[in-house]
Each structure stands twice: as C-alpha cells, then as structure tokens.
Amino acid sequence: MANVTQNRPLSPHLQVYKLIPTMVMSIVHRITGGALYFGTLLVAWWLIAAATGQGYFELVNWIMGSIIGRLVLLGYTWALLHHMLGGFRHFIWDLGYGFDPAVSTKMAKATLVGSLCLTALVWIVGIVIRLI
After folding, report:
1. Is residue 106 one of the residues assigned to a domain?
2. Binding residues for heme
3. How many domains does the chain have?
4. Is residue 107 part of a domain?
5. pLDDT tens, position by position, 61-94
6. Binding residue ranges
C-alpha cells in the first residue's frame, strides 16, 4: 500500500502568517466575548448583593471601588464596547459591505480606536456625574 501522506503539503503555521489588523481584531473580538461572561457574573454578583442586604451590598461596592475592582470594571467596560463595535463591523459585512482590504483594515483600526475613546468617555461621564 502506497503512503499517500508523503505528497501532501504541510499546513502553514503561525510563523507563516503576517498579522494584519483584521486578524488581530477578530482574535480580540473572541477574547472580549469570553471576557463578557466574567463581567456578566460581576454584574449578577452586584445585583444579588443589592437584593441580599445593605451590609453585603456595601462590601461588594467596596471591592468594586478598590483600585483592582476599578481596573476590572474598566476592562469590562472596554471589552463590552469593543465587542459591540466589532459586532457592528460584522453586521456591515453581513450586509455585504466593507470587504475591500483597505476598508476592512480601516474598520478594524476604527474598532480599536473607537472602543478606547468610548471607554474613556463613559468613565469621564461617570466620574463627572459622581462628583455632581
């Protein structure tokens, strides 16, 4: 019996591919989708604490108000907004637009910049409202 696997080409590996913005944003979109599961657990924890009683709610608020808690909430905010903008990008593709490489690269970069700017805006508005 002949060995047919000797004539098969090897599958390209990660060293062969050049990372382009659309690839990176696709990977980050998947990662942020996974991170949203964790963030949703935090929101549920906060709501359960609110329903449980004042003492437990104050404990959860203290944890979320700590530096580490705020960093986690900042990351959750960014993941939520980045995933949302990535979803809009995919929706545009579903409509049949934006497949040109130059356009899809601009959309990928805009997703990253937009998510960072929106995260900063949300946190600035939140801080201002808290100070009022």
Report:
1. yes
2. 83
3. 1
4. yes
5. 999 999 999 999 999 999 999 999 999 999 999 9
6. 83
